[in-house]
Amino acid sequence: MQYTHKYKSPLGEITLASDGDRLTGLWFDGQKYFASTLSAGHQERELAVFEQTQEWLDRYFEGKPLGLIPPTRLEDTPFRLAVWDLLSKIPYGEVVTYKDLAREIARQKGLPSMSTQAIGGAVGHNPISIIIPCHRVVGTNGSLTGYAGGIDKKRSLLQIEQGKMKRQTWIRFGSE
User: Which domain CATH number covers 155?
Assistant: First the structure.
């Protein structure tokens, strides 16, 4: 069974989803791919994971230190899961490019290159926005492109984080 809860953010209403123990979705209402992982038979309910997520979001929108991320559960293709794992490692207030993500996925898979369009598709289908920070991914020239919640929300989230609107050095993963 899946459960939902509504959260009123300064940027609009957000729908939270859970399997009862872990967060499985977080979408701005009306965004592209809204509730894409949510079954039709879900119920609205108060859950501990929703309380923890609300506290985390309150702190996020107030610009306070965030603390522990609520427990999450993601299910999808290995490719999307790998991209979402990279997203979760982008530091607060930093941005990376789709090209940076493509290079890192290619490096991890031992490939000479990776399509930035494929990366963009995976980033766009991230079902737990904000917490898995897909808003921290920008175009090669630093342009704000491709946020399922809308460019205005992306800009606002980056401003909350005092994000730098220029290309950042990619953080290194694993050993090279």
Answer: 1.10.10.10
